[in-house]
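Handover notes (outgoing to incoming on-call)

Open items:
1. Tripartite tricarboxylate transporter permease: sequence verified, structure written out, both below. Nothing else pending on this one.
2. Nothing else urgent.
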Amino acid sequence: MEALTALFAGFETALNPLNLLWALIGVTLGTLVGVLPGIGPALTVALLLPVTAKLPAVSAFIMFAGIYYGGMFGGSTTSILLNTPGESSSIITALEGNKMARRGRAAAALATAAIGSFVAGTIGTILLTFFAPAIADIAVTIPPSAKFALILLAFVTISATFGGSPLRGLISLFFGLSIGLIGTDLQSGQARFTLGRPELLDGIDFITVVIGLFAIGETLYVASRYRKTQDVIKLEGGATMGREDWRRSWKPWLRGTALGFPFGAIPAGGAEIPTFLSYTLEKKLSKHPEEFGKGAIEGVAGPEAANNASAAGVLVPLLTLGLPTSATAAILLAAFQQYGLQPGPLLFLTNADLVWGLIASLYIGNVMLLLLNLPLAPVWARLLLIPRPFLYAGILVFSTVGVYSLNNSVFDLFLLALFGVIGYGMRRFDFPVTPAIIGVVLGPTAESFFRTALQQSNGDATIFLKSPLTVFILLIVVIALVLPPILRARARRTTVTG
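Tripartite tricarboxylate transporter permease structure tokens:
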């Protein structure tokens, strides 16, 4: 009942006309960037951080949440019409959805993706409403040693999940941690890794790192692989479904939601794993298995629902523990820090209006997204005709102006260019960017919990072995590091002997 009372108070905040306008701007921007290939919600929120610094915190986060959900909605349009998934979680949608489009069923594919996203997003937000406060109450009692172990678990599992190689993921993570250590140590007052540059005494602004790695790196990468021809399937009319499509879609929507939410809520869950699991499950349960690989509607409905349910799940550890499990969540965490807020269990007590206003806005945003995506699908499809050079040139200009406006510093522009080249290199050689971003954001927090735990024990490192919860989490960390190489080695031996 307390959660419902708080949610109603949140609706009072979210239904403020100004906040409704920011929600509409957010979902519209989110759909737009979801449709455009290569521009996701993480990049968009990062680009907007300098611009929104003067906005009230509630309005800014309502807009960011709309961008996050809208990006998940819009990504299906690119996958279905262009066969180009903007996010890795949309690969399955491209596999079946584009086949449906080529069979003349683009409208049905877009409709099941949009309605499935709405159903999953709404159910996921309901689960967030009731689970988040309960987890926050428990999280208050977690000691600093266990919080450090939780962040360590997030580091390891995220590094192993993103990208094709766990080693590359760990290298990316350590790069991000190194960036996070640059500046003045707040406890000792000593300068660290500043190379004698006074501009680095306050550290490197997170926004500069993110925009460099994401925006500039992505722009350089796309430019190096630019193709002038784009095979876009034309769409006449809105996104609509027949009775048979509804009958074949509603169960995959529910099953996809059940898979997506828990995977989003655990560290390194993300949306990739549940979308693949949903596709496999639907293929096994379908009465039309022969259609899979040729354009089965269940292969669009289930994975899209899993994708959007995971987006709601991602907000659970972010709001209750301050742990981001995706690139967008990491940038949202940085946005909280920009406003002097630290997500975690105390956020529900100290900034209840912000938290519940944000959660309430997700319900409103889902309805807005459904109204935007079903009748306006052809309009969004036309965005795919924007020439890529114009699009990415605009991103470059916006990125440069945004970073320069932070401190009016030419040195920041030099850092932006440096991180842009590094971001291009990471994409070129298949190093995932997300672990680096999470390392930059969570590195200082992990260091703070580590030092606090040692101070409480007067420097006794066995403090990390005295709490059963800490020991349990550290054992999972060790298993996560050791088990995958063992399983890969065993699989190689089986292949050789077989």
